[in-house]
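Our platform keeps sequence and structure together, in a single record for each protein. Such a record has a labelled line for the sequence and another for the backbone structure tokens. This encoding replaces a full spatial description with a residue-level series of whole-number codes. Below, we set out a record of this kind in full and without editing:
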Amino acid sequence: MSVDAPAPIPKSPTEEPAPRTATPPVVPASEPDRCWESIGVRGDRSCPDLDEFMTCENCPAFTVAVVVFETRGRILALSADVVRLVTEARPMRAVPRRRARPLLGLVAVHDELLVAISLPAALGIEGESAEASPGGILVIDGGGERWAVPVDRLLGVHRVSPASLVATPGAAPVDESSEAALLGEDEPAAPDDGLPLRGRFTWGEREAGWLDAAKVLATLAVIDLAEPDPEDGGER
């Protein structure tokens, strides 16, 4: 994941937060001791805790880096593996005669013109934005296709242990294409008002929802950006 600016921001809510009127740049969280690659299932399997946890993903020591952000009053996170860049908000160009509700327009990021998508509209997140204008943009990579996703606030990069996630009651089983399945985890995704969540973790005094990246990417991939506006005569 790339970052446009070098100045650090808090990597966890235990540090002093930035003012709501300013959106500082996001920097990667510190790299943990990747014991799962040395003595775990990806290493020589000499870890004494393997007998108890069976696989590293069930151990609290196993963590995944996530980008934490706020949108429509919700604290959410996406795995850093799919967030290729975080940057400041940029001007958007309207796309004429297109009516796809999640489509916000086009935005130039490092000389690349990207489709800007409203994550709340794509995922059905209700509520009002806490800020008058986007506080930053996530550039999400879906395996060759990229989208620019404006968010109200960029909060930082955090390391989450999948074993410590709090599941939402009534969670549905994860299909084989989901991020949890790809990581070899047994925990089901936890929906929240229809959101494709893997689960929740604590962020300061609030709860953050960890979005299932595979399901988010699948949702973005099927948006019909060429859908015409009938008020313009149905032209494409």
